[in-house]
Amino acid sequence: MAGLKIMLAGQGSQLYFLARAFQAKGHLVTIVCKDAGECAWLSRRLKALVVCGDASLPRLLGEAGAAEMDVVLAATPRDADNLLICQSAAHQFGVKRTLALVNDPELEPVMRELGVDGGFSMTQVLSGLIERRVESAAVLNLIPLGQGEVNLTEVQLDTASPAAGRTLVELGLPEDSLIACVFRNGRPLVPRGGTELLAGDKLVVMTLPGNYARVLRLLTGERR
What we know:
By secondary structure, the protein is α/β, with parallel strands linked by helices. It has helices at residues 13-24, 36-45, 58-63, 79-93, 108-113, 122-133, 168-171, 212-220; strands at residues 5-10, 28-33, 49-52, 71-75, 97-102, 118-121, 139-145, 150-156, 177-184, 187-189, 202-207.
């Protein structure tokens, strides 16, 4: 895939690490930062166009080349500025993909309603990471998909798991659930109805929230 043209608007060390990560993957990065000292520092360390100014001003976004961008990511400390940057990028410069850092997690759905393609709350991300760290060894919640409408979960089977030694057909999983992949001895396989599950298998399971607990019960015996 050809590299994307990505504009990052904000300040702080996260801007540098984001830019470096995107460049390492072959993307072209433009940075907009209103701190002159940070702009000089970033210019010395990154092979990126660095524009000094306030990205919440549409004029500056235009001068920085917003109309040529595939993605604009707003990561300033102020949610109102992030919203304004994304709205300007989308409506005035035709940027197809806009993303915003959401400092107040309660504003995440508001951002989506107001036209931001994706809002990322660091509070939610960190709390999710902590929760996944303390999950049981058998069940690891990977990520919610479709704004939480689908659960993607990794399930580790052991000798006590009710699913061990049974085929998918025998399990009788409910509708709207799917074992998408089985990792066995470190190798992935796409299961079919006659695939027998074994102790030690790691399953990648997709479910809707309503049948999540039932599927876990069938696979591991755990109740949630």
